[in-house]
Amino acid sequence: MCLPSGFRRSPIAWATAFMLASLVALAVAGPMVWGAAADRPDPSVVLRGPSAAHPFGTDGLGRDLLARVLTATRPSLLLALAAVLLGAGSGIIVGSCTAVLGRRGRRLTAGMINLLLAFPALLVAMFLAVVFGAGTAGAVLALAAAGVPGFARLAQTLAAGVAGTDHLAAARVLGLRRHRLLWRHVLPNIAEPLLLSATTAAGTTLVALSGLSFLGLGVQPPGYDWGLLLSQGLDRIYAEPLPALAPGLAVLYAALAFQLLGEALAGSVARRGPAPRAPAPTPPPSGPAEDGLVLQVEDLTVELPTPGGTIQPVRGVSLSLRPGEAVGLVGESGSGKTLTALALADLHPHGARVSRRTLRLLGADLAALTPKERDRHLATGLSMIFQNPASALNPSLRIGTQLTEAVRAHRGTSRAQATAEAADALRRVALSPALLRSRPYQLSGGQRQRVMIAAGLMTRPGLIIADEPTTALDVTVQRQITRLLTDIRRDTSAALLFISHDIALVGEFCERVLVMYAGTIVEAVPADRLADGARHPYTRALVASVPDLAADRGRPLPTIGGGPPDPLVPAPGCPFEPRCPRRQDHCAEQAPPWQDFDATHRVACWHPEPVTAVLKTVARS
C-alpha cells in the first residue's frame, strides 16, 4: 500500500499502521488458529484463573478466554465496520442531497437533520436496538441509524460549499438530473473529509457496539464479541480481574487504532495543502545595483512542474521601477503577468521554482537576506492589490482586524496606534472609519477594493503591485480607483506596477507600458506612444483590438488570429512567429534580440513595424 509521504514520516502513523496490521491479522487468522480452542468446553477447568495453559483463564464451560478474545476480533470489527458503512452511506446521501434538491426539499431535509440531531446518538441506538430486537442485526441497524444524523450534518455543511460553484450551475444549465449532479459534481468534491470522519467514527462505533453487547442488546450466545465477553467476565472482576479486563483492553486497542488512523490521515491531508516549501538552493548574489530604483529585476524565470513536464510560464523577464513611477504590464490571459507579480512578492505557487540574476527591492538584494529578513522586507516594502478582493479578504474577520494585523506583526505597533492608522488609511481612500467594525460581505465591490488599497498603505510600501484591480468594477468605480492610485503615488512616491487587460486604461494611467507575450516581455514603450508608436506586431494587434466610438459597427472587432504557443513545446525562435503577419523564415529559428529605439523604447522583434504605420488612437476619457 502506498501511503502519503507525510503519513510515512510520522511516528504516530507507523504505530497506527502496526496496530491496524495486527488487527487485520487477528481478524483473518483468529478463527482458523484459535477457533477450535475457543469453542471447546472442558468441565475439568471451569472458571479457572490465569495459568500457563490458559493465560487469561477459562469461562463457565472451561473454554480458553485468550482464544475467545482473539477469535472475537473478526466479528467485533466486521460488525462495527458494517454499522459505520450503513450509517455513513445513508447520512452522506441525505446530507449531500441538499445541494441538488429544490428549495422546499432542501428545507425539509435540513429540518429533519436538525430534529434528529436533538437526540443523543447513544440513547437513540439503545432505543432502536430494543425496537429492532436484541441480536446482531438489530444492534448493527440501531448503530447505523444513530450515526445517520451526524454524517448528514457534515455532508450538508460540505455540500453547501459546492452548491454555489459555477461548475454545478453549468451542470444544471446542461440539464443533468439530480442523481448525476450528486454523484458527479457534489460527492467527489466532499469525499475526502467524509472519509476521514468515517474512519474516526469506526472506533466510536466499535465501543458503542461492545456496549450494546455488554447490556445484552447486541450479539447473543452462542455467538460472541468483545462486549459479550466483557459482560460474562464482569461477575468475576473482584476475584479474577483479567477475564474482564482482557476484552475491555481489546476494545480499547482497536478503538484507539481507528482514532489514530483518522488523525494520521487528517494530518497527512493538511500537510499536502499548505506544506512548507522545500528549501531552495541559495541564489547567487545579484548583479550591480542601479541607484534610485525601487525595483530592479533581471532575467526572472519561473518553472512549474506539470504531469506533462516542466513548463516556463515566465522566461527572462527584466524590469525596473523608479519612485513614483507607474508602469503598466499588459498581455493576453496566460501571458504570465500575474505569475510574474507573484514571483516578485514571493507568493508563487507551491512547487514552482523561481530563478533570477538580480532582484532588488528598495535597494536590498533579496538573495542576500535570510528567509525571515526577506519576509519582513517584502511585507513592509511591497504591497499587492489582488484582482478579487472578495476572496482576498477574510469574510470572518472585521475590516479593522485585517488592516491592523500587518503593522502590529511587522512594526510592533500597539493596538490603539494601529487602529488610528487604519482609520487614517480608510480616510485616505475615501471611506469612513466606521467601516473598521464591518466585515467584507457587508461592503460593495468598490468598497472592498478600496479596503484592499488601504491595507496595502498601512505598511507605507515603496512598491504597489496592482493585479487587475478594476476588472470586476463598473466604469465609474474603475475611474475612482485609478484616480485614487494616482493620488497615492503623488503623496507617497510609491512606485506602481499596474497589471491589466485594458489597453486604453493602461495607456491613460501609466507612464511606461511593458507588453508581455508567452512569458516574456516583447516591448517596452512610453505610454504616450502606445497608440501610434508601438513597433512590435503583437502590441499593434492589442491596440487594434480596443473598440472605440468611431469603429464601424457593421464590421467585426479586430482579433489576433491563432493561439499562444504550447508551453510544453517552446519554440526556439520568436514565440509570436506563428501569429505574426511580418514573420520570415528565420523568425522561427532564432529568438529576436532587443532593439533600442531610444532610452525608453525597446522591442524584441526581427522585423518591427515602421513608426509611420499609425493604426488608431487608444480611446481616452
Structure report:
48% of the residues lie in helices and 12% in strands. It is built from 20 helices and 13 strands. The longest helix has 37 residues, at 178-214. Among the domains are: 62-270, Orthogonal Bundle (MetI-like fold); 295-501, 3-Layer(aba) Sandwich (Rossmann fold), CATH 3.40.50. It is α/β, with parallel strands linked by helices and 621 residues long. It starts with a helix and ends in a 17-residue tail after the last strand. It is elongated. The strands form 2 sheets. Strands 7-8-9-3-10-11-13-12 form an 8-stranded mixed sheet, sandwiched between helices. Strands 1, 2, 4, 5 and 6 form a 5-stranded antiparallel sheet that branches. α2 (11-39) packs across α4 and α15 crosses α16. β5 (358-361) and β6 form a beta hairpin. It has helices at residues 5-9, 11-39, 65-71, 73-96, 103-117, 121-132, 136-163, 166-173, 178-214, 226-233, 242-272, 337-344, 371-381, 389-392, 399-410, 415-428, 445-457, 475-492, 503-509, 537-544; strands at residues 295-306, 309-321, 326-330, 353-355, 358-361, 364-365, 382-385, 463-467, 495-499, 512-517, 520-526, 594-598, 601-604.
